[in-house]
UniProtKB/TrEMBL annotation:
Protein's recorded name: DUF538 domain-containing protein
Organism for this UniProt entry: Camellia sinensis var. sinensis
InterPro entries listed in its UniProt record: At5g01610-like (IPR036758), DUF538 (IPR007493)
Keywords recorded for this protein, A-Z: Signal
Signal peptide start-end: 1-22
Length: 166
């Protein structure tokens, strides 16, 4: 192999290695954005994540469970959230549930369609504007936080359970 060919091969190898290293430094929120999703699908405080780009399988880790209320919906995140992510679609989602009336239902799929997100709980789904998820909610107080507490309500946070105290 000639010297210029070796240099080209070496340069190509360096570019490949640096692009892989750059992907490894993405935060979970940047990874969400790279698939077309807003960062607010996950709460503040994700401690780590795993992502297999070839299959889309992922796991995101929180330091305990997380719950909060957004408008008329109560959401609960387990300490591990998993699923399969592709461009504009998350399927086989596990670890996130929503309270509808008196029932807790697992959110199984999220699809982005232009400026809307469709959340599916099996046979039913609901659509929300993407811009509602531009910020990450905080455990305990969601989007209504002032200094880590829900506006007008004292919070009692536990590493494993979040609850509101009157």
């Amino acid at each position: 192999m000639s010297s210029p060919a070796i240099h080209c091969l070496f340069l190509l190898l360096l570019i490949t290695i640096s692009s892989v290293a750059a992907d490894d430094t993405l935060t979970v929120y940047q990874a969400l954005e790279s698939y077309g999703f807003p960062i607010g699908l996950l709460p503040v405080g994700v401690t780590g994540y795993e992502l297999d780009p070839s299959s889309g399988k992922f796991k995101a880790y929180l330091d305990g469970t997380c719950s909060f209320k957004v408008d008329d919906y109560e959401l609960k995140y387990k300490s591990t959230i998993s699923g399969v992510i592709t461009k504009n679609r998350i399927r086989n989602l596990k670890g996130i549930s929503v309270k509808v009336l008196i029932l807790w239902l697992n959110i199984s799929e999220v699809i982005r369609d232009d400026d809307e997100l469709e959340f599916s709980v099996g046979i039913a789904s609901a659509n929300f504007a993407v811009d509602n998820f531009e910020e990450c909610p905080q455990c305990g107080c969601g989007f209504d936080c002032v200094n880590g507490e829900r506006k007008g309500v004292k919070l009692s946070l536990n590493r494993f359970v979040s609850s509101l105290v009157d």
